[in-house]
Write a structure and sequence with these properties.
Distance between the termini: 43 Å
CATH architecture of the domain at 364-478: 3-Layer(aba) Sandwich
Shape: elongated
CATH superfamily of the domain at 364-478: Calcium-transporting ATPase, cytoplasmic domain N
CATH topology of the domain at 364-478: Calcium-transporting ATPase, cytoplasmic domain N
Strand order of the largest sheet: 10-22-21-20-11-18-19
CATH class of the domain at 364-478: Alpha Beta
Amino acid sequence: MSVELKPVAPASVPGPVRESWWRSAWSLAEVRWASVATALFLAGLVAQLAGAAGWVTWPLFLACYAAGGWEPGLAGLQALRERRLDVDLLMVVAAIAAAAIGQVLDGGLLIVIFATSGALEAVATKRTEDSVRGLLDLAPETATRLRDQTTTSTGHPNNTAPGGALVEETVRIGELVVGDVVLVRPGERIGADGTVVDGGSEVDQATITGEPLPVDKTIGDEVFAGTVNGSGVLRVRVDRPAGESVVARIAALVEEASRTKARTQLFIDKVEQRYSIGMVTVTVLLLAVPLLLGHAFTPTLLRAMTFMIVASPCAVVLATMPPLLAAIANAGRHGVLVKSAVVMETLGTTTRVALDKTGTLTRGTPHLAAVHPLPATHLTEDELLTLAASAEHPSEHPLAAAIVQAAQTRRLPLHPVDTFHATPGQGITATIDNHHITIGAPSEGFGVVRELQASGATAVVMTVDGVAVAVFGIVDQLRAEAANAVVGITSVTGQAPVLLTGDNAPAARTIASAVGIHDVRAELLPDGKVAHIHDLQSTGERVTAVGDGINDAPALAAADTGIAMGGAGSDLTLQTADAVIVRDDLTTIPTVIELSRRARRVVTANLIIAATFITVLVAWDLLGHLPLPLGVAGHEGSTVIVGLNGLRLLRTAAWKRAAA
């Protein structure tokens, strides 16, 4: 598979991130201030419930205001300098207004909600940035460069000079230049994109292409940085510097997609500017106009403050957040981690789902699917499998493991092996009971082999004393729930999912046919997946992408919503994704989309309730005389109603109805 990628600026390769999640989060100022504000609020609440005097409770609540409100307040003032009025500043002002009329507890709760929201956003951003940087850890920090004892006039190794013994030297990956030859020993990660010039081995390149099985590499084949060499020794000529490798390009794609992806906002955020400006304007007019007309200051101020309290968007904020947070908690109990309220809201807008194949629809491990005896043998399937598993038992190759596992599943006894030899990239030879056995790739495409390869399976041929006796078909095992998940996704979105995979077309079509997917796009590198995501979005689709591997991370970042498989998902993919399926159960995908839609409906109902209360109370205050206690009671009553309505989504029944 050839690769055409645009170069990116070389990047340094950082050391592994060893911080714990909490230590990493605690390093953020937003998290520390939000924690302090929450602790102070809880202390004040406990003191108030215990009947403590005001001189005890008020300092605690005011300290909470300072700890949690200074940052959004400062951000709001900076926004004012840019002629923008955001809801953060409005919330701080509303909290101060609440305290001014004695409702210090309500103001403190508002401060804690906004401080916690800002802290969670900061943590999510930092974790994603750390994961993108950590992606470059896939490529080793050093490589073994081979050079002749003579050097060129420029001082660079003369790797092509004839004669002389080759000398090994350990160099940093960033020092490799195009044309260098590096030695890759068994089990090592390949340090640079290049071409095999000597040796043979099998290479696990699932992190780059998504292919589930190791690929045999011989002279002339292309290899990628960050992939894992198998049992053979390779000499690789460097074709690209470190900054232009495929793995570096994946990191760049994730950063680019995250940067250019439109910032999704909650519904209430989209109207906050107009609402905020309108509310502040009316409050100022209610204070200024009566004073200019000679009215008394105290009742005028009280009326303006009453308006600010009843018109403040506290109930609107709570109308939006509790249903979404309740839906997040419900999804979490059923194995889906949704990272934010914005993600939970956005999931419900999904119109098309793009699925990865290896590790998503399939388990990503080799599985023996068929044993085909050939006419030259009289042995049964079990006898052939016993012989093959006995010969392959000493091998470390993943295909060998699939054959051995199949024999163990059938409880077949294995024979002792007299001699064993593995040839990287070709197969194994063994002697059992004086019979010479070889197992490896077919040398010619006869009937059964062609049928297996056409179906996407890997064909392995076994010979006994030089005669071909059996062909084994090895496939990537399909997840049991995959077909049901596709049916559910199709029902919820109205369209069947699209399959985006780096695997070969026959294997992709076979899996897609088995689960009911008709739109198959195969042999895609990471940037190819991103391009297809953008193509779908350009037609008006709201795309949710699902994947597990590092090669899926750019697509998950580019999609409207990205979902990662938690069981085998890479660190980068788990951090890039907006949601994680913890138990790798694909049927939760349509369920969480439907749950999101239920949450959106509850949010709409809550907004109607909150808007009705605000309208009635504001009209009463403007057109008549609304007593302050009644205004506060009405405001708090609407808050309680919308809060309780949203919490209905915490019930298990809500998940079951979404799954139905």
